[in-house]
Amino acid sequence: MSSSPVERRLRRRSVHRSRSTAVSVALVVLVLVAAWIGTESVLRAIGAPPLLADPQTAVDAALAPDAAFVTMIEVVAAVLVVAGIVLVVLAVTPGRRHRAVVPHDRGAVVVDSSIIASTARNAAGRAAGVPDAHVTASARGLRTEVHLVPMSGIPVDPSTVEHAVAERLGRLDERLGRRVTVRVSEKGTLS
Questions:
Q1: pLDDT (tens digit, 9 = 90+) per residue, 80-97?
Q2: Is the Cβ–Cβ distance between 173 and 102 less than 8 Å?
Q3: CA 191 to CA 177: how far, in whole Å?
Q4: Helix (H) or strand (E) holding 15
């Protein structure tokens, strides 16, 4: 797999979520607040009535607060704290999409996790000899979990199924086949 800076950046952008929506929302709110303050200031300067609150009245109320103003400030502060926490969490968390990068001799292939889960489900069903309806699988990152419900009277060896799933996923990328978990239900069903 090539590791040029451009390809590494493309792989990362394909797997990680963009934070542009959160940034856009924060900027729109900031612009609206600045526009409101500017509009109120211009209306005060020309002697027109304020839209929501006169800036001078707001400053006077802040300097000599009464109980209602303190309550309003506490509510606004709580909303700003929650918004700040949300923005910090969005900035710090990795924001991964449900995709994996599979190396290829001509670059890299980005595979959705549902495709990996479907491949694991198919391999498990074939190895256990059960229909696809009896198998569910989920893939997250490099971890794959398979849940299997055997048919009544036909035993299923979890290690055989796990090996088959790991081998099939290993064909895509050796890292995908390393962390496979197979759970076989204790009760079987009729086909």
A1: 899 888 878 877 776 666
A2: yes
A3: 29
A4: helix 5-15
